[in-house]
Amino acid sequence: MFNSQLLIVAVVAAAYIRSASSFQSGSDYDVYKTTNLYNCTGHVPVSNVTVPNAVDTLPQIEPCEGHGWEQWSLFLHGTFSMLLRWNQGDPSSYVSSPAQFDVLIVDVNGTTVQGKVVGDLAYTDSDHVKQIVIGDNSLTWDSDGLWYNVSVSIDDYHLTLDSFSATLDTFHPNVAFHNGLLDSDGWFGSVPLLRGHVVGNLYTPSKQNITLSGLSVMRHMFSEHPFPLYINKYTGGTIWGHSTTFYDSHVFYQTETVNGTVHEAAFLGRALPGKRGGFSSTWATYAVTDDTDLYHLSIDNATKQINASFSGCASSSASPSTNDVPYQFNVITAMTPLVSFTDLGGGKTSYYTLVNGSTTAPFDGETKHGAIAGMFEVYEAPLKKGGTRDA
Ligand SMILES: *[C@@H]1O[C@H](CO)[C@@H](O)[C@H](O)[C@H]1NC(C)=O
Ligand SMILES: *[C@@H]1O[C@H](CO)[C@@H](O)[C@H](O)[C@H]1NC(C)=O
Ligand SMILES: *[C@@H]1O[C@H](CO)[C@@H](O)[C@H](O)[C@H]1NC(C)=O
Ligand SMILES: *[C@@H]1O[C@H](CO)[C@@H](O)[C@H](O)[C@H]1NC(C)=O
Ligand SMILES: *[C@@H]1O[C@H](CO)[C@@H](O)[C@H](O)[C@H]1NC(C)=O
Ligand SMILES: *[C@@H]1O[C@H](CO)[C@@H](O)[C@H](O)[C@H]1NC(C)=O
Ligand SMILES: *[C@@H]1O[C@H](CO)[C@@H](O)[C@H](O)[C@H]1NC(C)=O
Ligand SMILES: *[C@@H]1O[C@H](CO)[C@@H](O)[C@H](O)[C@H]1NC(C)=O
Ligand SMILES: *[C@@H]1O[C@H](CO)[C@@H](O)[C@H](O)[C@H]1NC(C)=O
After folding, report:
1. Residue extents of the structural domains in the chain
2. Fewer CB atoms inside 10 Å of the end CB: C or N, the chain?
3. Cβ neighbour number for residue 350 with a 10 Å cutoff
4. For this UniProt entry, which residues form the secretion signal (predicted)?
5. Residue 229: left if φ>0, alpha if ψ -120 to 50, beta else—which one?
6. According to the model, what pLDDT value does residue 28 have?
7. d(CA 188, CA 93)
8. Residue to probe by mutation, ligand 5, list 201, 210, 212, most atoms within 8 Å of CB
9. In CATH, what class is 5-17+32-59+67-380?
């Protein structure tokens, strides 16, 4: 047990220096953007934010830099529910080492696979291939951000996942008009991979080779310093709403500060199922930050209910037959987390599965009902004795 929280916080205050120079050259973070990238804009197959984003997914905190934190987390929904996380350091501590890779695969024929590898984070930034690696666990993508491929070897399980990025785009929240900013003070996040259709296989210690298929969303967050003390918690969620005719992906971030200020960023995109598990068509409908006209989110921690809604879109050539029908996602998460991680600074990150819920969404000018799937994440800042934050 470490009880060095006060000491760590004191060091942080002294070392709090913002330097934009450590962003990967060519990265798209911290560039001024419009507030709402998509607002019922419909089919935008290749937007002009796409290409630099292959660089955005690289480490923005140099592994040798020694301070700051960074996290890539991939959720898979399909044959199995999966959570994969590559971390450098922790949100509530000052040091960016060690790096840690975490894997959780739910109910592989009755066994929940959970493991971690502590080591160094290495990365490759070549013209054609970009990669991050911890131990034998890599995430590899190309310069066009088309494929994000995973290779994991842990405890005699071998996992490969190849994800095709269906929308060719990235969602960057936009607090204070800065691209990727999640709060007013130097915390960045993005969703580099949306609604990718994932195929792969899991080779188990009992020599089964299980074919995998599903959808994935990956989130990337980082800051050059631990969370400022005014951040109480953040939540993040991925909710897929699906019917036989459409597949909607809703991703959100919510930051809450001690004085009650909340920032909310949300993305909504749709894919239409195509032949053989692919998509015949995909488009982004909303990417909004702090816009209560377009997006409502309410999270009740006691009842574990989350309701999210986007206002409807008028029919246009870009978003046909939507007839102002809103998008609604009502879900209930499990009471207890699927898994929790306590970081070196004492912050706690918990992941919850969704137990049930439903979506209503427009299709062909009418309101349709659909089923849901997804994952909900809560980060809670460390408490000091007596239950209040360190100051
Ligand atoms: C979004 O689009 C709606 C409908 O076109 C419009 O009324 C609204 O002003 C837009 N909001 C923003 C923030 O762009
Ligand atoms: C992106 O494209 C839109 C529409 O074509 C244009 O208005 C905007 O200025 C472009 N943004 C950048 C950063 O090039
Ligand atoms: C394990 O689960 C996979 C995926 O559901 C299935 O294809 C496979 O047959 C199962 N194996 C056994 C031994 O039950
Ligand atoms: C990812 O996997 C796909 C499908 O197997 C392959 O075509 C692509 O070249 C791979 N890309 C990278 C960067 O590994
Ligand atoms: C499992 O199956 C995949 C595809 O069918 C194959 O590429 C892979 O080599 C197999 N893995 C093992 C360890 O046999
Ligand atoms: C709350 O704190 C944040 C961050 O320090 C600050 O930007 C915001 O103005 C504060 N809001 C109020 C209502 O005091
Ligand atoms: C979510 O919506 C349901 C149904 O309208 C309502 O009963 C519940 O109170 C809402 N919960 C939250 C957290 O808004
Ligand atoms: C949610 O509620 C539980 C118990 O009801 C409490 O222990 C936990 O701290 C709360 N979490 C947040 C993020 O408020
Ligand atoms: C969850 O399931 C219960 C019981 O079947 C149902 O009453 C409730 O409406 C469901 N909640 C949502 C959000 O669909």
Report:
1. 5-17+32-59+67-380
2. N
3. 18
4. 1-22
5. alpha
6. 84
7. 16
8. 201
9. mainly beta
The candidate with the shortest Cα–Cα distance to 271, out of 144, 146, 363, is: 363
Instruction: Specify which residues 263 forms β-bridges with.
Output: 255
Longest CA pairwise span in the chain (Å): 60
pTM over cut 0.70: yes
Label residues 179-200 b or e (16+ Cβ within 10 Å = b). bbbbbebbbbbbbbbbbbbbbb
Distance (Å, rounded) from C-alpha 329 to C-alpha 345? 34
Q: How far is the CA of 53 from the centre of ligand 9 (A)?
A: 39
Write down the pLDDT at residue 39: 80
pLDDT along the chain (391 residues), means of 10: 30 35 80 79 55 85 89 94 95 89 95 95 94 97 89 96 79 89 88 78 97 92 89 94 91 93 92 74 86 95 96 75 89 96 92 96 93 96 60 38
| DSSP state for residue 156 in the 8-state scheme | T
Which ligand number lies closest to the CA of residue 335? 8
Out of 149, 199, 212, mutate this one to test ligand 4's pocket (max ligand atoms within 8 Å of CB): namely 149
For 181, the token pair is: 């900013």
Query: What is the layout of strands, in order, in the sheet containing 187-203?
Result: 111-119, 99-108, 82-88, 69-78, 209-223, 187-203, 157-164, 147-154, 137-142, 129-134, 121-125
Q: Which of 382, 29, 390 is nearest to 192 (CA)?
A: 29
CA distance linking residue 42 with residue 283, whole number of Å: 6
**From ligand 7's centre to the CA of 305, what distance in Å?**
7
